[in-house]
Each structure stands twice: as structure tokens, then as C-alpha cells.
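pls design
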């Protein structure tokens, strides 16, 4: 891991991302890149006669944005030798996607102000539009926790073959933290599988990896999101990791109409890998 990208919209949630991103960067010795997107109103690109575009006002605005980015750099990244910032005139989702490719970002850390359910964090919130357009892993955080530590991580999956790449990326991230890994498969009434069969499936999935501190867990629940969150609460995990990919695997269970309201305190940072 060499480069971490943090989108900044000057909300408290993007500052939460700065707190978490700085902790990860210190652990992994990564560069930090901050990006702020300025989405221009329709028609403003044409600066000819008849437009309401004001160059002096716009320059003043950009100076204020730059000054606020510098303030964030000093507040959260004062001890960093390598930190870059960029202001781009683009749709936020396209801008984050394009800039992450430009700098070859290894991780994107974003704040989310969606609803508390895991489904909203992965599928329903505005953050999903960014996740859907990215091949880069995205870490979503919803709370400010300066004392946050990665001691326990859960990888929730159906453990199908096409999720191997996501699992390998998860292991690459986890190796920096020497943490305990929980490999979780949630069974629901609608997609029930015998526990022994489920465990054998997970064991076969991981047999080619040299795993050390890990345990396999088969968890029965009414829904996959509820199972993930309840298990994570029971085990007091620090991070939830999940693969996101179209209509197959675990994500197809998250796409349904799932009515679930959970306390913000039980929602952990979520690390997503696109398959």
C-alpha cells in the first residue's frame, strides 16, 4: 500500500475519514492524497457572453477552498512528509474515479452520512455511486474515533471462487495490522445451507492461503446484513470487510428491500472490494 486517497467535502464525515486515513497511513507508510470536487452548475463551462460566471468570485472561492484544504492538512496530517491535495472541476463520482486512476491509489477512505444499516452503507447511500465506479478498495467510516485500532477484522462472504481476488486484497490490507481474522458466512432462511457444508466450503476456499490468526464462523440470521452486524457486535470487531459485485455473491442479498435500523454505535468501518 503506497497511496491513500481521501475525498474532502469539508463535512464532519470527511474529517472522520481524515482521522482514520491518517492512522492507516502511519501504519502502512503511505502517501496521503486529498481531493475536493467542485461540481460546476449546468452551463457554467461556457464562459462566453450571457453566462453568470464571475472569474473574480470564482478565484476567491478557489482560494478559500485551497486554504481550507491546507487547514485540514495541518490539523490531521502535520507529521506527514508526503501529502498532496487537488481541486478538480468534475462530478464527484467521476472525479474520484478518474483521480484515483491517475495517482494509482491503493485505498480510498470516505466518510458516509447515509443511514445506519449496512445495506445503506454499501448499496443505498451516495457513497455507493462512487463504490460502483471504482476498482480501488474503499474504506467507509461513519464515526470519529481517534483511538481506533484494527485488532479484529471480519471478512463476510459467500466464499465463492469469484471472491478470491477480493479476499486476497483483504489479506494484503490485514497483514499490516497483525490482527485476528474472522471469516464469516451468514446463512438465512431464504438461502439456508447446512452448517457443516458451509464450513467445508469456507475451508476449501482458504486452503491455498497461509493463514495464521483466524477462525471460521457460520452465523444464522434473518438477513445477511443483520447477521454481519450482529456477529460483529458480538465479537466486538473493529472492521467489516465485504466484496461487492453485481448481482452475485453476497451483494445480491444486500440489494433486496431490507428494512433495518441499527444504532450508529454498532456500525463499524466497512472495507469494500469490487469483484
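designed seq:
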Amino acid at each position: 500500500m503506497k497511496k491513500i486517497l481521501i475525498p474532502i467535502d469539508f463535512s464532519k464525515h470527511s474529517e472522520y475519514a481524515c482521522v482514520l486515513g491518517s492512522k492507516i497511513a502511519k501504519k502502512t507508510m503511505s502517501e496521503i492524497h486529498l481531493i475536493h470536487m467542485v461540481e460546476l452548475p449546468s452551463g457554467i463551462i461556457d464562459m462566453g457572453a450571457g453566462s453568470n460566471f464571475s472569474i473574480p468570485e470564482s478565484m476567491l472561492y478557489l482560494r478559500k477552498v485551497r486554504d481550507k484544504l491546507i487547514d485540514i492538512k495541518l490539523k490531521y496530517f502535520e507529521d506527514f512528509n508526503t501529502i498532496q491535495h487537488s481541486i478538480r472541476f468534475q462530478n464527484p463520482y467521476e472525479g474520484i474515479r478518474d483521480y484515483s486512476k491517475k495517482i494509482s491509489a491503493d485505498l480510498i477512505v470516505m466518510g458516509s452520512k447515509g443511514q445506519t444499516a449496512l445495506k445503506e452503507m454499501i448499496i443505498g447511500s451516495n457513497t455507493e455511486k462512487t463504490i460502483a465506479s471504482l476498482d480501488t478498495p474503499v474504506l467507509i467510516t461513519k464515526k470519529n474515533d481517534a483511538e481506533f485500532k484494527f485488532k479484529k477484522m471480519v471478512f463476510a462472504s459467500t466464499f465463492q471462487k469469484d471472491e478470491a481476488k477480493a479476499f486476497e486484497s483483504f489479506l494484503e490490507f490485514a497483514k499490516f495490522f497483525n490482527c485476528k481474522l474472522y471469516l464469516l458466512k451468514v446463512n438465512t432462511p431464504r438461502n439456508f445451507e447446512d452448517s457443516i457444508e458451509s464450513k467445508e466450503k469456507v475451508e476449501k476456499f482458504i486452503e491455498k492461503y497461509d493463514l495464521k490468526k483466524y477462525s471460521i464462523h457460520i452465523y444464522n440470521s434473518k438477513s445477511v446484513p443483520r447477521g454481519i452486524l450482529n456477529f460483529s457486535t458480538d465479537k466486538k470487531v473493529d472492521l467489516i470487510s465485504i466484496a461487492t459485485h453485481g448481482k452475485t455473491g453476497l451483494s445480491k442479498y444486500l440489494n433486496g428491500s431490507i428494512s433495518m435500523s441499527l444504532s450508529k454505535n454498532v456500525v463499524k468501518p466497512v472495507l469494500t472490494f469490487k469483484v
